[in-house]
């Protein structure tokens, strides 16, 4: 059976050119991409990589690829990542990894933000299948929770603070903040959701990537489709 994640990663190789600065997200598709770069790109030594994910940085180093601190950069040629779900306008949920703050920083730095996905991730409109993950400053947790429940009283089914499996207490983001998953019974308008969640004092970022992705490489059993962002809904 064809591994569609690998096929999406293979398609992304065609975009690479010598001397580029490349940002990478996290996940199995990005891991395949790193393996392919290390094994099949002749000019890999001229490429420089960075990532908001410690896991990805370690993987880059293990494959002998140049990994640099993203705080020293202002721009990237490309930022490649995968997602939990993406719609036909290339809005996406990236909730699973919990590193969406750093991922959004890189997406904004990049000349192009490119999603690598298999067909199971594509939907006509985003749904409630995945939660909206919100990064919250710890001392603001209760006040943020109160405001969320007040603002979205008819739409929220549950808000769950992520817990660490290795120790007691909340799971902390790489910036030392709480991560909370908002499960909606009905997804609010995503344009307003994108704006309003960030206006709550104590919220650092959320995992809805609204109008950030420019290109999606979609892998299905029929091959690779290059999708370009359609901003008609703006």
Give a structural overview.
The protein is α/β, with parallel strands linked by helices and 234 residues long. It has two domains: 4-121 and 210-228, Rossmann fold; 132-206, ACT domain (Alpha-Beta Plaits), CATH 3.30.70.260. The chain is built from six helices and 14 strands. The longest helix has 13 residues, at 28-40. The chain starts with a helix and ends in a 6-residue tail after the last strand. The model has no long low-confidence stretch (mean pLDDT 93).
Please summarize what this structure is:
With 234 residues, the protein is α/β, with parallel strands linked by helices. It is built from six helices and 14 strands.
Q: Could you describe the largest sheet, including whether it forms a barrel?
A: 7 strands, mixed
Can you name the CATH architecture of the largest domain?
3-Layer(aba) Sandwich
Uncertain residue ranges: none
The backbone outline, from C-alpha atoms, is globular
- Can you write the helix and strand succession as a string? HEHEHEEEEHEEHEEHEEEE
Mean pLDDT: 93
Strand order of the largest sheet: 3-2-1-4-7-13-14
Count helical runs: 6
Number of domains: 2
Strand runs, count: 14
CATH topology of the largest domain: Rossmann fold
Q: Provide the structure class.
A: alpha/beta
């Amino acid at each position: 059976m064809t591994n569609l994640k690998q096929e999406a990663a293979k398609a992304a190789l065609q975009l690479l050119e010598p001397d580029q600065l490349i940002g990478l997200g996290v996940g199995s598709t990005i891991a395949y991409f790193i393996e392919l770069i290390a094994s099949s790109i002749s000019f890999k030594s001229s490429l420089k990589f960075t990532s908001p994910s410690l896991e990805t940085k370690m993987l880059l180093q293990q494959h002998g690829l140049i990994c640099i601190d993203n705080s020293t950069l202002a721009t990237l040629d490309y930022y490649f990542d995968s997602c939990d779900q993406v719609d036909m306008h290339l809005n996406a949920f990236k909730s699973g990894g919990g590193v969406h703050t750093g991922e959004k920083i890189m997406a904004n730095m990049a000349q192009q933000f490119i999603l690598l996905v298999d067909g199971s991730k594509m939907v006509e409109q985003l749904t409630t299948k995945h939660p909206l993950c919100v990064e919250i400053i710890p001392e603001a947790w209760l006040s943020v929770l109160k405001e969320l429940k007040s603002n979205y009283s008819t739409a929220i089914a549950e808000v769950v603070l992520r817990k660490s499996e290795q120790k007691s207490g909340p799971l902390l983001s790489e910036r030392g903040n709480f991560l909370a998953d908002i499960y909606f019974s009905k997804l609010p308008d995503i344009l307003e959701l994108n704006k309003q969640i960030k206006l709550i004092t104590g919220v650092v970022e959320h995992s809805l990537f609204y109008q950030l992705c420019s290109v999606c490489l979609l892998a299905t059993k029929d091959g690779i489709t290059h999708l370009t962002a359609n901003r008609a809904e703006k």
